[in-house]
Design a protein that fits this description.
Two copies of one chain form a homodimer. Chain A is an alpha/beta fold. Chain A folds into three domains: 153 residues, Rossmann fold, CATH 3.40.50; 162 residues, Dihydrodipicolinate Reductase, domain 2 (2-Layer Sandwich), CATH 3.30.360; 88 residues, ACT domain (Alpha-Beta Plaits), CATH 3.30.70.260. Helices cover 37% and strands 25% of the residues of chain A. Chain A contains 14 helices and 17 strands. In chain A, strands 7, 8, 9, 10, 11, 12, 13, 14, 15, 16 and 17 form an eleven-stranded mixed sheet that branches. The first copy, chain A, has a six-stranded parallel sheet with strand order 3-2-1-4-5-6, with helices on both faces. In chain A, α4 runs parallel beside α5, α5 runs parallel beside α10 and α7 packs across α8. The longest helix of chain A is centred in the last third of the chain and has 20 residues. The first copy, chain A, is elongated and about 80 Å long. In chain A, 54% of the residues are buried. The mean pLDDT of chain A is 93. Chains A and B meet through α1, α2, α6, β10 and β11 of A and α1, α2, α6, β10 and β11 of B.
Chain lengths: 434, 434
């Protein structure tokens, strides 16, 4: 049986998981794949910390370049993260004729053009399955399983921290700040949580998914993003009363030559499969012209789940090398570059959930509905709520409405105009619906 | 760009879907895969019926052998079904040096040994992604994405007809027969429904999944199977009162050197993702040592979804041929043949739902619990129900119990003994819990 050598750059959480998995399941994988995958070297600046993996100390090194240049290593696994040294080492590996497996979403989303074009020029593979969805093999599915499909839309719950917070906000009727605090103490959220809770992590992943599905580069700056840190607990509860659960969704939709990519807290009906994805789990629903709806669910992060996908990619690259055929240099086939463009967010249509604190006097509701109607926004349903105890004066009452489909621009204009009339006490809250 | 020719055997529903998909998404696929896949010939005995696909009449033939021997065809797609002529033609294609893509679960489950060993001897590929789960790329995920995982268990909803019937039984409080009748009229169930509702279709699929995950041949006769045709509506309702939904589940579990494969109506808690899979949809949950829980959801049947997976396989085989490397001759790597064995169903442990019609007199419940306890079956919870109007005499009342984990053999013995005491009116109903 042919042997393929692997070198790991970055012996952190995921690096340790990959090393552990490669060692303990080596025989299992060789039986399945027909290739014997050997762990040859691991590079990290810290060789002291115990990672809980019994690796031969002789394979540890602080010299990443020695890993890349090791002739026994054909696959370099980049698990350093970020776009600094990770980018340099990946490019160096390509130039040395080594294929690369990475879990680095930032590198892919921000430097994808350079990474893919260099891999293609060097005739090597770049696999990046673990950059989106952790243990869910969604990239593989999009690239291969659904290769025969025109993808009309994708909806993803792509950040476990946000989904954990939203699940607890709903189930325990807690405010965002309190759950975030708990999540930080339990290790489910970072001390600096903005990357997760403000949606930026989700944007990176959404851009990668859209690029793969549609074959053009998605500029991150063109993706509207709204996180969950400003989400009020009361909206989570009101949404539930209407039969909806709020999820931080990446929404990707194609219409003709335009693609929408956006990230918003979004109302999902209870009986939609995405509503059943709770706690730290992730899921992506993909709609294809042949497949119809399919959904992929699993742990979006963590040592072992991420290692599972990295190792799956290593297996593929190993088989590619044995057969002398690299397959993913054209990983993101930019065959629609220049043909597709990003949709102007103002024109994106959706149903909306709107909450307003409305003056409790005759004519307020009439004023609002007239203004909404004049902007083409029609109302599907509305509930007047009991005022909070904070609103004991009773001068204003919360009103929650669900709208029919309307463009983002029309709704924003209508809500601005309503706010300016003074019939509402504060800027209205609006949330998208799936 | 290299061209790879495809020939289809069987121009039925799925065959027409594959032809349609290959024609309309040809350019899309060549952009993604770097191979131009051309539809060269379609063989069927009926060349008259309109399949709603605009194929050049010149590529239609009644001669399957002519397709197999056509030098422009490198991939033969078998969509005839069954183990008669389909088996002969697949073997003939192998001998002619052609790789095969099939959706034929019966062929794989019943003749897998012969099919795989012949493909291996001939040095060609056999892909069969659409044999399980229709449009869900579950076979690919198991073979590749999760290749680095020891699979501890899988639970699948693998038959859309059964899931449709169970969903309606629960939502509309209807008996099995009435929903089956509706389903037949709506085209969701066959006139001869036994293959679906008695669980045999699910057994075929479960055997294929287990064979792939564990690398040994699963003999169909050793798989205990219980369908849904004897399921009482009252059990669906009582289960719901306890917070469970009944699904026809394929359960696959590995413990040391034994593998359980079984098919039973099974209680799944409402907050389990599998409980959210409704109507004709299918799903498979897979637990791996690295990946932890992942789930794959989609349409388990139908022209386009099945075609989606067949075409995904064609794309893979085409790339294998271009790179001169067949990859799945060892499709079901029988590397554990002789090392693993099927678990004796009597020893399988589960929690159980039990319903008994109990004599409404002092001591009945005590008699039952004593007998259950003497067989090592302990009770987690019990509810006494109001008698049906049928039981207006009130001599017997329905009692529903959930048990802690017990072996199938222990529970059966206990229930037999209870029945023989005469404290229950009819043989108790027992259902597994996930």
């Amino acid at each position: 049986m042919k042997q393929i050598g692997v070198g790991i750059l970055g012996f952190g959480t995921v690096g340790a998981g990959v090393a552990d998995g490669l060692l303990k399941n080596r025989e299992l994988m060789s039986g399945r794949l027909g290739v014997d995958i050997t762990l040859e070297k691991i590079a990290d600046l810290d060789l002291i910390t115990d990672r809980g993996v019994a690796v031969d100390p002789a394979i540890l090194t602080t010299d990443a370049t020695a890993v890349i240049n090791d002739p026994s290593i054909q696959i370099v696994v980049e698990l350093i993260g970020g776009t600094g040294v990770a980018r340099e080492l990946v490019l160096k590996a390509f130039e040395a004729g080594k294929s690369v497996v990475t879990a680095n979403k930032k590198l892919l989303a921000e430097c994808g053009d350079e990474i893919f074009s260099t891999a293609e020029r060097c005739g090597v593979d770049i696999y990046f399955g673990a950059s989106v969805g952790g243990g869910i093999p969604i990239i593989r599915v999009l690239r291969e399983g659904l290769a025969g499909n025109q993808i009309s839309s994708m909806h993803g719950i792509l950040n476990g921290t946000c989904n954990y917070i939203l699940t607890r906000m709903e189930n325990e009727h807690l405010p965002f700040d309190e759950v975030l605090n708990d999540a930080q103490q339990a290790g489910y959220a970072e001390a600096e949580p903005s990357l997760d809770v403000d949606g930026f992590d989700t944007v990176h992943k959404a851009a990668i998914l859209a690029s793969i599905a549609y074959g053009f580069h998605v500029p991150l700056a063109s993706v509207p993003v709204e996180g969950i840190s400003h989400l009020a607990g009361v909206d989570v509860q009101y949404a539930a009363e209407f039969g909806y659960r709020i999820k931080l969704l990446a929404s990707i939709n194609r219409t003709d030559d335009e693609v929408e990519v956006s990230v918003h807290p979004t109302l999902v009906p209870f009986d939609h499969v995405l509503a059943s994805i709770s706690d730290v789990f992730n899921a992506v629903m993909v709609n294809g012209d042949l497949s119809d709806s399919t959904l992929y669910y699993g742990r979006g992060a963590g040592r072992e789940p991420t290692a599972s996908t990295v190792i799956g990619d290593i297996g593929d690259v190993a088989r590619n090398i044995v057969s002398g055929s690299c397959r993913f240099a054209r990983a993101i086939a930019l065959n629609n570059q220049g043909k597709l463009k990003m949709r102007d967010p103002a024109t994106i249509e959706s149903q909306y959930y709107v909450r307003l604190m409305v003056a409790d006097k005759a004519g307020s509701l009439g004023t609002m509905t007239t203004i909404l109607g004049s902007h083409g926004v029609s109302i599907l349903g509305a509930n007047q709520k009991l005022p909070d105890s904070d609103d004991s004066g009773g001068d204003y009452v919360p009103v929650v409405m669900l709208t029919h489909r309307a463009s983002s621009a029309a709704l924003v204009s209508a809500l601005d105009e309503i706010y300016q009339t003074g019939v509402v006490r504060e800027p209205p809250v609006k949330l998208r619906m799936i």
